[in-house]
Amino acid sequence: MAGKNKNKNKGGKLPNRVAADNRKARHLYHIEDEFEAGIALTGTEVKSLRNGEANIRESYAEEKDGELWLVNAHIPEFSHGNRFNHEPRRPRKLLMHRREINKLAGAVQRQGYTLVPLKVYFTERGRAKILIGLGKGKNVRDKREDVKQRDWNRQKSRLMKDMS
Fold first, then answer.
1. If we measure between CA atoms, which residue out of 38, 19, 34, 8 comes closest to residue 129?
2. How much of the chain, in percent, has pLDDT values that exceed 90?
3. Nearest-CA neighbor of 52 among 127, 120, 133?
4. What is the CATH number of domain 14-138?
5. What is the overall mean pLDDT for the chain?
6. Is there a contact between 115 and 59 (Cβ–Cβ < 8 Å)?
7. How far is CA 140 from the centre of its chain?
8. CA angle 135, 29, 18 (to 5 degrees)
9. Are 43 and 151 in contact (CB under 8 A)?
């Protein structure tokens, strides 16, 4: 009975699984648009990502020579890796269509936007993807207004709940 497939997944597909999340990004930036990109990774980086050990809080994306690069993302060395293990904070190439890269680079140069990584996840096919947000930085007043709005929405929902 060596040929039995004990995998419960239908079609051999994996569920979308978030490997790293940048929850601070929406607090620090007005995210106006989101883009999905692939990431060029080495084998040990993929294994570390699958363990959920990555940190993208201080990272950003930048355009160099017509290519997008993820800078300052921390993917720790794989625990069972050998001497060919990767460098934890190396720049990683992002894979996008040329038209999208040109659009993002133009927005960053002309309007002063920032490319912020929002989350790194694996698709159903097992590919590592990154969700990049195009946004502008918030100042202290904007952050306070967001907190006031959030509190008002909570209070409003409580009042509506009490009324019904």
1. 38
2. 21
3. 120
4. 2.40.280.10
5. 84
6. no
7. 24
8. 90
9. no
User: Whose structure tokens read 């694996």?
Assistant: 122
**pLDDT tens digits for 73-92?**
888 888 777 777 877 888 98
Count Cα neighbours of 54 within 13 Å in the Cβ-side half-sphere.
Answer: 30
Q: Which amino acid is at 156?
A: K
pLDDT tens-place string over residues 102-143:
998 888 888 888 899 999 998 888 888 999 999 888 888 888
Residue 81 has which token pair?
A: 């890796």
3-state per-residue secondary structure call for the chain: CCCCCCCCCHHHCCCCEEEEECCCHHHHEEEEEEEEEEECCCHHHHHHHHCCCCECCCCEEEEECCEEEEECCECCCCCCCCCCCCCCCCCEEEECCHHHHHHHHHHHHHHCCEEEEEEEEECCCCCEEEEEEEEEECCHHHHHHHHHHHHHHHHHHHHHHHHC
- The three-point CA angle 86-22-56 to 5° equals 20
Tokens of 67: 């290519």
Quickly tell me which residue has 């069972």 as its tokens.
80
Task: Kindly give the pairing relationship between strand 128-137 and strand 60-64.
Answer: unpaired
Q: How far is CA 31 from CA 19, 34, 45, 115, 163, in A?
A: 21, 8, 28, 9, 35
